[in-house]
Backbone:
């Protein structure tokens, strides 16, 4: 008889775990609290427009990249429509100066040298960092938890260029990298492009991203987050998996320190041989399991959380098109009048103009998206007063539209739709702790932060996803679901198998 597996949460991790569980002969069921799958990898429709809530770049869109294989197994890569941007971001300064982070490394190097000839040496070192990263191939076939000593040695050998490289760049925070430029415009623009609110973020992640963009291995999937999660959901259902939406898990049922099932918010109980939580880590450990299974190290992470900050996310539908503005992370321009959000003043506005995705807007019209990092506690408190909460959202939309109208004269009159999401929106729809959209924020100090996929003293239970894979991201989520299935198979003495659709 098939062993049964219950998966909590139908984000990319949960869907992936479900697909690989089905491929390996488990009878899986996913319980998802929202009315659709995808988790934070989503989008929402408003007045004929679709606001993408997730995707900037998807690592693994080139067959030469190791993640491509996973997207194939999950039924995403077959026939997908990928846009490879020429630019990562354009940062406008005063007096018409623009720093464009080109995806092509040679072009980027030339452009940076034209902007700041005095920074030639620092630019060459930075560009070399990107080039070095492009030689690194991530070994992702096997879950690191299952490495034998020989696998470890093989990995060291494959990753040798990266280890050397990590030694040099892994501990450099983005903030320090920006300070090395003498040229004031390049220093400030580099800071806007790569540092912004992520000053402690290790520069190495940005170097890797630029390397992937150069290789056309981190494109945008047309249709955005919804296209990705819909494709994996289809694959899951075609493999025979069962998806139960509007099914919030309140408790994980435990008998003699063995996870044996889940209790839903409607009071029904469901039993399974293996329980995997791909939901928010805090809810899993402290609410579903009442904090009974946790070691001091993990508790320390939760007591003193360093998380990706939550967002205020403004989507606009405008009845006009744009010329040649497409890029991975949009454009940033200075504001003559700062925008205040949750008590914090912003002197720049970053806007993503989705002129490259015709599926998101009616013909001749475009979706724009503006996002700001924000303070969770501010919004939590404000949410208690619905009228003030809604008024604040309207006032933010107004400020943003006014600022965009100054940069693109006449735009305000063309706005047909606006929508403002806050940390409360993420919390409500995905349960994500403190509204964080990507879990633990790596810093130069915590780059080697490791979290276990099991909890001490609890058998038959696993965790997967961005709350046990610091840094998060879509490929990591898909890989985490794959890895946790490998771990389960190993425990059950089964050979891990994959299939292609
Ligand atoms: C604005 C934004 C931009 C991003 N940009 C990128 C990008 O460009 N590239 C990239 O690689 N990544 C990006 N990410 C990150 C990426 O989307 C996430 O890291 C990834 O989708 C996380 O997947 P997950 O399945 O681990 O977690 P989640 O998506 O959080 O999934 C958890 C699931 O569990 C469900 N759940 C929670 N509690 C319960 C419960 N009690 N009962 C039942 N179900 C429950 C939730 O509803 C959710 O569906 C972005 C994210 C956001 C929000």
Residues:
């Amino acid at each position: 008889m098939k062993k049964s597996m219950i998966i909590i949460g139908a984000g990319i991790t949960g869907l992936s775990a479900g697909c690989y569980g089905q491929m390996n002969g488990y009878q899986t069921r996913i319980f998802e609290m929202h009315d659709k799958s995808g988790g934070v990898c989503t989008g929402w429709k408003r007045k004929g427009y679709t606001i993408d809530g997730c995707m900037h770049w998807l690592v693994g869109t080139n067959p030469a990249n190791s993640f491509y294989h996973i997207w194939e197994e999950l039924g995403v890569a077959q026939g997908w429509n990928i846009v490879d941007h020429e630019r990562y971001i354009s940062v406008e300064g005063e007096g018409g100066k623009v720093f464009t982070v080109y995806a092509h490394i040679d072009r980027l190097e030339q452009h940076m040298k034209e902007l700041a000839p005095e920074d030639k040496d620092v630019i060459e070192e930075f560009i070399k960092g990107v080039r070095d990263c492009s030689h690194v191939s991530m070994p992702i076939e096997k879950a690191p938890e299952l490495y034998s000593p020989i696998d470890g040695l093989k990995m060291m050998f494959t990753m040798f260029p990266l280890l050397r490289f990590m030694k040099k760049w892994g501990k450099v925070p983005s903030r320090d990298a920006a300070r090395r430029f003498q040229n004031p415009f390049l220093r400030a623009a580099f800071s806007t492009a790569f540092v912004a609110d992520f000053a402690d973020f290790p520069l190495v992640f940005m170097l890797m991203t630029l390397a992937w963009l150069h290789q056309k291995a981190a494109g945008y999937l047309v249709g955005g987050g919804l296209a990705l999660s819909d494709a994996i959901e289809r694959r899951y259902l075609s493999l025979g998996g069962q998806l139960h939406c509007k099914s919030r898990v309140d408790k994980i049922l435990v008998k003699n320190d063995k996870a044996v099932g889940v209790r839903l918010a409607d009071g029904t109980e469901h039993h399974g041989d293996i329980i995997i939580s791909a939901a928010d880590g805090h809810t899993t450990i402290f609410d579903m399991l009442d904090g009974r299974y946790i070691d001091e190290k993990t508790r320390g992470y939760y007591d003193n959380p360093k998380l990706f900050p939550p967002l205020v996310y403004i989507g606009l539908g405008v009845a006009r098109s744009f010329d040649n503005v497409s890029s991975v992370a949009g454009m940033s321009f200075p504001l003559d009048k700062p925008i205040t959000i949750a008590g914090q003043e912003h002197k720049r506005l970053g806007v993503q103009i989705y002129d490259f995705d015709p599926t998101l807007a009616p013909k001749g019209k475009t979706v724009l998206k503006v996002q700001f990092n924000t303070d969770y506690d501010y919004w939590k408190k404000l949410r208690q007063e619905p009228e003030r909460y809604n008024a604040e959202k309207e006032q933010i939309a107004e400020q943003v539209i006014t600022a965009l109208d100054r940069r693109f004269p006449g735009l305000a009159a063309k706005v047909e739709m606006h929508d403002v999401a806050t940390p409360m929106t993420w919390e409500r729809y995905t349960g994500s702790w403190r509204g964080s959209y990507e879990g633990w924020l790596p810093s130069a100090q915590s780059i080697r932060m490791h979290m276990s996929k099991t909890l001490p003293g609890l058998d038959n239970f696993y965790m997967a996803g961005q709350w046990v894979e610091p840094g998060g991201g879509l490929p990591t989520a898909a890989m985490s679901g794959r890895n946790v299935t490998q771990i389960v198979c190993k425990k059950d003495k089964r050979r891990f198998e994959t299939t292609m659709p």
Remarks:
- The chain has three domains: 4-39+68-79+225-306+439-491, 101-214, 311-421.
- The pocket of flavin-adenine dinucleotide is lined by residues 8-14, 31-34, 39-41, 53-57, 248-249, 278-280, 283, 430-432, 437-438, 465-466, 472-475, 477 (CB under 6 Å).
- The radius of gyration is 23 Å.
- Residues 101-214 form one domain.
